[in-house]
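User: Teach me something about this protein's shape.
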Amino acid sequence: MMDGVQEVLSRTVDPKAPLKGQEFYELRLDDSDDIWRPGFIVTQAHAKWSEINQQVIWDETESEQCLTYDHAKQRYEARRLALAQQGFLYSDMDPLL
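Assistant: First, the predicted structure itself:
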């Protein structure tokens, strides 16, 4: 069993930026808890500001099953790169400057 990896990516590193108009992605890499499908799960969840609800709403989640940790790590990094190319460059795991 491994410790999971979890990070939130955004387009700003400013902790004082208003939530209004922002969006985020959460990336996770976890052990599968399904005994019939062992391996690892890579999950990408999207959240954005909702004018109607006046709060951040999580609105879509994608998951993929990988048999090995190495494959799961590659898929995690591929998703992270794709999000960075869309402008989601700032991670809550990166040290602040």
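Now, about its shape. The longest strand covers residues 55-66. DSSP finds one helix and five strands in the chain. If you'd like, I can walk through any region in more detail.
User: That's plenty for now, thanks!
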